[in-house]
From TrEMBL:
<keyword id="KW-1003">Cell membrane</keyword>
<feature type="domain" description="Peptidase M48">
    <location>
        <begin position="75"/>
        <end position="290"/>
    </location>
</feature>
<dbReference type="InterPro" id="IPR022919">
    <property type="entry name" value="Pept_M48_protease_HtpX"/>
</dbReference>
<dbReference type="GO" id="GO:0004222">
    <property type="term" value="F:metalloendopeptidase activity"/>
</dbReference>
<feature type="transmembrane region" description="Helical">
    <location>
        <begin position="186"/>
        <end position="207"/>
    </location>
</feature>
<feature type="binding site">
    <location>
        <position position="146"/>
    </location>
    <ligand>
        <name>Zn(2+)</name>
    </ligand>
</feature>
<keyword id="KW-0862">Zinc</keyword>
<feature type="active site">
    <location>
        <position position="143"/>
    </location>
</feature>
<keyword id="KW-0812">Transmembrane</keyword>
<dbReference type="GO" id="GO:0005886">
    <property type="term" value="C:plasma membrane"/>
</dbReference>
<feature type="transmembrane region" description="Helical">
    <location>
        <begin position="41"/>
        <end position="59"/>
    </location>
</feature>
<dbReference type="GO" id="GO:0008270">
    <property type="term" value="F:zinc ion binding"/>
</dbReference>
<keyword id="KW-0479">Metal-binding</keyword>
<keyword id="KW-0378">Hydrolase</keyword>
<feature type="binding site">
    <location>
        <position position="216"/>
    </location>
    <ligand>
        <name>Zn(2+)</name>
    </ligand>
</feature>
<keyword id="KW-0472">Membrane</keyword>
<feature type="transmembrane region" description="Helical">
    <location>
        <begin position="12"/>
        <end position="35"/>
    </location>
</feature>
Amino acid sequence: MPHTRYAPDRGLTTRMVTTMFFIGLLYVVFIGVLLAVFKGAWPLIVIIAGGLFVAQFWFSDRIAAFSMGAREVTPQQAPELHGAVDRLCALADMPKPRVAIADTDVPNAFATGRNQRNALVCATTGLLRRLEPEELEGVLAHELSHVAHRDVAVMTIASFLGVLAGIMTRAALWGGLSRGSRNNNVGIAVLLIPLISAVVYAISFLLTRLLSRYRELSADRAGALLTGRPSALAAALTKVTGQMARIPTRDLRKVEPYNAFFFAPALSGESVSRLFSSHPTLERRLDQLARVSTQLGQAGRG
């Protein structure tokens, strides 16, 4: 992890390395199967796989910002938001990321970018309207922790590999089917490849969900330790989660695909299975923040 004053998390680092190893291995096996079945289409497979991966890595921050409706703002346009980010970056001794606002009533925030110098931190208008200044700083400290620990880059890449598996399947099938009866493997591939793709996507999905839940706990802890105000972050969590139930379902559904990147999940249903959840439960997050508060109190008395 680059030098910052954010508390390091070896557990997060281990999980990120493990997740990327298994997803990378899964992806290599998947590409190998495609190359074995569609031998004549290997140039198309390699070009698409390599090109899309490079594009995603270099332009992930812009893609995410555009998808979530974020627009970059200047200090003159959003002085309070920029002021909070300035204070936290000075406190954390890290480069200031680009700052953006998404025009939606869904109260949330997210960070994206492949490294600290290419990062973007975004808050929604719904979040800015609802939170007090110290609560907003707690949320921003949480998001900047994702940037400092680089887990946002790992999540972006890991999530993309599952999507890329689906794209590669369609491209390979199209390339194979276009040759028609000249390839005896086409009939088998029509049945086999979609099944393999579904398995690859499912395993990628579960691995990224497991990492996502841990990284949220890690960011809560690191952000609370940096600011020294875990109660402000706990208050923001409680407020955002409570307000989410008041947002129209159609608005929640629009942003639900980006839950893994959000400060708090936007859920359009009553509940979600913990196995598939992108975030730990509110109770678990508040319990951890209570322990951090106790830890800080004991350190202060010591």
